[in-house]
Amino acid sequence: MIKANNPQLVSWVEVPEGSDFPIQNLPFGIFKTSYSDARVGVRIGDYVLDMSVVHNLGYLGELPFSLSDFSSCFLNEMMRKGKIASRELRNRISELLQSDNFEMQEKADQVLIPIEDVIMQMPVQIGDYTDFYSSKEHATNVGTMFRDPANALLPNWLWIPVGYHGRASSVILSGQDIHRPKGQIKPDPNENPIFAPSRQVDFELEMAFVTFDGKPLGDSISTQEAEEFIFGMCLFNDWSARDIQAWEYVPLGPFLAKNFASSISPWIVTLDALEPFSTETGEQNPEVLSYLEFEGKKSYDIHLEVGLQPQDSEETTICNSNFKYMYWNMAQQLAHHTVNGCNIRCGDLMGSGTISGSTPDSYGSMLELAWRGTKPLTLKDGTERKFILDNDTVIMRGHCEGNGVRIGFGEVSAKILPAK
Ligand code: CA
Question: How far is the CA of 197 from the centre of ligand 1 (A)?
Fold first, then answer.
C-alpha cells in the first residue's frame, strides 16, 4: 500500500465530515491570493497547503524538488520530476499533516491558507489534448441517433480505443463561463445550412488524465507501464454543440462543435490516491489485440453526477454515472495512443469520452438524457430542457468511497451565456 493511502491516518488539520479532501487525498492545484502570485498548493479539508512555503521552511528534506517547482504558475515543473518523486512528495506531505507529527504544526499559520482566500488557476499547462470515445453505452446511443440503430457501433469500435486530437487552447478552468457558440447548422434537412448560434449546446460528462513526460518519439508505452506515466485525474466537461456536430462531422470527425470550450476541475487527484479504488474492467469481447491486453485492476470506481442549475433557481441532479462503466481503461487508451510511436509529453490531457451507464438516468449528455430532444427533462423548477439554455449552469462532481475514506474531485462548473 502507498503510505499516504492508509485509511487510519488522521490529520491535525480539521477536515469537515463528508469532505472530498481528507488526508488520504492530497490533490495538487495552482492557486493565487490577493497578495501573492500563482503557485502550487495541496488541498486538505477547507485549506490549501502552500508548497512554496513548505519548501522554504525546509520540510521537504532531500526530496528532489526546488523552489521553482512550487513557485511556478503550472504543475508541469513539479510533474517533470516524474512518478516516483511525486509519490515520495505526497507521502512526505501526508507525514507532515498527520496528527501525531508535530514538525509543521507550529507553522500552520504560514503554510495553510483558508480556501475562501484563494483563487484557483489552471493547474496544468496543457500541451496536447486528446479525447477518447470509450463508453460503449454512449457510442451505442450516439450511433443509434445519428446513424443506424441496427449498426450503432461502427465495426472498429470494439477493436480500437477510438479517439481524436482536440484543442488545448480552449480547455478552461471551472468557473469560467462560456458564450453559446455560433456556426453552421442545418435545422431543416431539406434546406441549405444557415449560420446561427447553436440551438443544441450540450455537456459531456467525462474525466481526464494528465500525463508525465512519456518516451521518445518512436517508442511505445505498454498497458503494464501506463500508470507510471499518469500523474492524476480531474473532472472534465467536454462542451459540445450537437447541431454543428451533426452537419460537420463527416468525414474527419467533430471540429467546431467541440473546440469552443472544455472545462476542467481545479484539483488534480493523483492516480496514487485513487489506487484503493481500482477495480476490474468489464468484459471485452472480441478478445483485444495483444498490445491492448492488460493484467490487474485498471478501472476505477468513481461515482459521478451532473447537476443543472437554471438562473436564479435550484439545481436538479440529471445524471448519476460511474467512471468504471468505461469499456476501455486508461492503460489501454495510453498504450493505443503510443503504439505507433506517438510521443506524449508532460501536461498532456486525455479525455475519457462521455461516460454513460446502461440506464437512462446514467447517460452522460443531454443528447442522450433527452434522446435528441424527443424526451425533454423536467427540472425541479418545472421547466423543461432538451439541451442547455442560456444562463444554465452545469455542475459535475465525482468521488470514490470505501474503508471510511472519501476521495473526491470537488466540482467542475460553468454557465452558458448568450451568444456574442
Ligand atoms: Ca468528448
Answer: 20
